Amino acid sequence: MKKYIPILKETQLFSGISENEIEPMLSCLQAEVRSYKKGEYVLSQGDSLSYITVLLEGCLHVQKDDYWGNRSIVNVVGEGDMFGEAYAIADDARLLNDVLAVEDCRVIFFDVKRVITVCSSACRFHSMVVQNLFFAISEKNRRLVQKIGHMSKRTTREKLISYLSEEASKQQSSTFLIPFNRQQLADFLCVDRSAMSNELCKMRNEGLIKFERKQFTLL
Amino acid sequence: MKKYIPILKETQLFSGISENEIEPMLSCLQAEVRSYKKGEYVLSQGDSLSYITVLLEGCLHVQKDDYWGNRSIVNVVGEGDMFGEAYAIADDARLLNDVLAVEDCRVIFFDVKRVITVCSSACRFHSMVVQNLFFAISEKNRRLVQKIGHMSKRTTREKLISYLSEEASKQQSSTFLIPFNRQQLADFLCVDRSAMSNELCKMRNEGLIKFERKQFTLL
DNA sequence: GCCTTTTCGTTGTAAAAACAACAGATTTAT
DNA sequence: ATAAATCTGTTGTTTTTACAACGAAAAGGC
Questions:
Q1: CA B104, B107, B111: angle at the middle one, nearest 5?
Q2: Which of A11, A150, A202, B23 could crosslink A162 through cysteines, CB 3.0-4.6 Å?
Q3: Does the CB of B213 sit below 7 A from strand D?
Q4: Domains in chain A with CATH codes
Q5: The model's pTM
Q6: Tell me: the pLDDT tens digits for A13-68?
């Protein structure tokens, strides 16, 4: 359990809490680590979840099969990411998606009741975790709305402009780095990579933007 | 103010709190009720919000109009639903969307600082409101993720299938009512109305669905 | 260093969507 | 009850996207 503390320290959930403070919290929060083989389901649609979870190792896909059996991947969970928290915290929320291990995985579970109910004074950093969770979910909410703002644009060019403008304003510079490669950016904006790449180059030729790998400049 | 207590009692924010316990909380939370006519804006993009709000009566759309006049409906707020909370909780978050009354509405405002800061006095149900707020924000996140799931689909048909499947499963019936007219549904899924209407009729001709105004049936 | 894998840009084609314009049905207002 | 406004379906045209296939450049492993 101890070996995962450096990973946990970097997560938003434990932001502002040092490594030696995390250790006693693990038992307070009834932490439990489980392993999954590639192809196994970590969570399934319809499940009732009572754990806050953080992915320690591997990669997960949050996906859904619709009425006619078509599958859609909703989200990719990377190492250190929290997932399923909205289902664990909400009162009686059944999972609407499946969570599949696409690699061998290691997941840490925290009892949600222990997390959101502040325990007696012994665990003084607990209230900070509660607050972290509160702000994290609010921020996640706003990020989702922003993502919807980009996706709602009709053309690939408009989606790109929407996203790049926001990134520029967030980083307070017309030159900035994006956290995606081309494929990931396309997946984020829900467009085809090659079509997007094509559009980016057109925009560059028209003198709207400059870019080099992950560095972009709005002109 | 008193007459709204029976409505508030049924809301997520005051879940588990009885009517006679709500009354003293209203002053503690500095509640204020305002009315809006159909077509009026309750909140506007760029606003800084310091109130948790609950819709007592009517229906609201959380939406955004872009430079070219394209409208994107992010969320539908029904009676008893809370809105804008993610912006109120964060310290310096400006609203990304407008909130429009699509019917005559009545909204109650609570000072967010009073809500999330548990008071010292004998307001013992206050901490339960805080917990309810957690639940509500989590649920909101889930709804946003669902919407992204629909929008992430490449074709209008897939978007429709995704949305209608979910609505069917949410209402636990293959026949159900949607809360949108055609234009609003198009705005919600971020596609052109006529193209969507066309696609719906094709799907009906292919025997996939039946519909009549706002009532749909999956076959 | 070299080889392998990944990333990125480019092109052409087929499919799909946006857009515009219009007519009939339905709802709302007076 | 009638007129006005809104909603819905339909069609044709233009624009945009998805898809597939490929080579060059860059990154990573040994």
A1: 165
A2: A150
A3: yes
A4: 2-140 (2.60.120.10), 153-218 (1.10.10.10)
A5: 0.87
A6: 888 888 888 888 888 888 999 988 777 889 988 899 999 999 988 878 777 755 54
Task: Going from the first residue of chain B to its last (219 residues), give the mean pLDDT of each consecutive group of 10, the final group possibly shorter.
Answer: 89 90 86 91 92 92 77 89 90 88 92 74 70 88 88 90 91 92 93 93 91 91
End-to-end distance of chain A based on CA atoms, in angstroms? 50
pLDDT recorded at residue B120: 54
DSSP letter for each residue of A96-157: SSEEEESS-EEEEEEEHHHHHS---TT-TTHHHHHHHHHHHHHHHHHHHHHHHHHHTSSSHH
* For A147, nearest residue in chain B (alpha carbons): B148
Q: Residues B166-203: pLDDT tens digits?
A: 899 889 999 999 999 999 999 999 999 999 999 999 99
Nearest to B193 by CA among B156, B140, B166: B156
Measure the CA–CA gap between A75 and A70, rounded to whole angstroms. 16
